[in-house]
Amino acid sequence: MKNFTEQLFGGSWTEKKLEILKKYLDAYNTALKKQPFLRVYIDAFAGTGYRQQQKRQYNIQGIFEELEQEESKNFLKGSAKLALEARPSFHRYIFIESDKNKIDELEKLQKEHPEKAHKIEIEQSDANEFIQNYCDNEDWTNTRAVLFLDPFATEVEWPTIEAVAKTQCIDVWILFPLMAVNRLLAKDPKKISYDRLNRIFGIEDWFENFYKTRTLDDIFGQPVDIIIKACNFDRIGNFYKNRLRTIFSGVAENTKVFYNSRRSALFQLFFAVGNTKGAPIAIRIAEHLMRNI
């Protein structure tokens, strides 16, 4: 059993992720400020609104790491806090979080931003459930939104992505968990997390893209079929990007892969647009940010 310490939150890759988001929100609101749309920011895994710069120790055995938090007093702005500081501002903010303790912290943002308190909605809910319901029931005639999907692991399911795309009114940033998905794609076919991967990708033919069958001779000289994992992080990321292209009006070709200190890929940042008319300029801005930050 091997353990290592990784600065997971507050590291340079986190800074870059949030800088990309912040600059996009400013550009988005500037572009639409003269349009008659209600502009909404949605943070599906809002956390506390801040992020704590800390080191966490975790065990690489198993699919998902068990994290052990160390003490730290260095709190930095998270995505929810940065969204509230976007200029021009949004008309409405929806922060979704399932953890009651984090909900209590999010509510403090209303006190920190009293001029926007009436615009802030804090929802203690499962992110997939809430977003699907919200997308299905919101009147999108005069509403446009930016959604930030920043899960810790593999919480985001394909029906949620489909619901977002169906509105044709939401720009979405997706932090895709490359490392976690790669672990779900186990080398041993008996250990592959089929159900989980089906929910992530929304189809079952991912198997054909990530595995190959080879025929080898057994110890008796008889041919046997062996299933071999045949994918890397690039292949996984490209597969997910192509899945997004099947339902969104536009998907940024440029993406951003974030690595840990050992240069292992952790996450890949994707950008997709639902609105056909606004897709070209939105993608141009997003690709510029991912290229240059």
SSE topology sketch:
Blueprint: E1 3-9, H1 12-32, E2 38-43, E3 50-52, E4 54-59, E5 68-69, E6 75-77, H2 79-84, E7 92-97, H3 100-112, E8 120-124, H4 127-137, E9 143-149, H5 158-167, E10 170-176, H6 178-184, H7 194-201, H8 206-210, E11 211-217, E12 223-229, H9 233-245, E13 250-251, E14 256-259, E15 265-273, H10 279-292
Parallel strand pairs: 2-7, 2-9, 7-8, 9-10
Antiparallel strand pairs: 1-4, 3-6, 4-5, 10-15, 11-12, 13-15, 14-15
Helix pairs in contact: 1-10, 4-5
| Proportion of strand residues | 25-35%
Gap from first CA to last CA: 36 Å
Average pLDDT number? 87
Contiguous helical run count: 10
Number of structurally distinct domains: 1
The general outline is elongated
Q: What is the number of beta strands?
A: 15
Order of helices and strands, N to C?
Answer: EHEEEEEHEHEHEHEHHHEEHEEEH
Rounded radius of gyration (Å): 20 Å
CATH architecture identity: 3-Layer(aba) Sandwich
User: What is the CATH topology classification name?
Assistant: Rossmann fold
Q: State the secondary-structure class.
A: alpha/beta
For the sheet with most strands, the description reads: 8 strands, mixed
Helix content bin = 25-40%
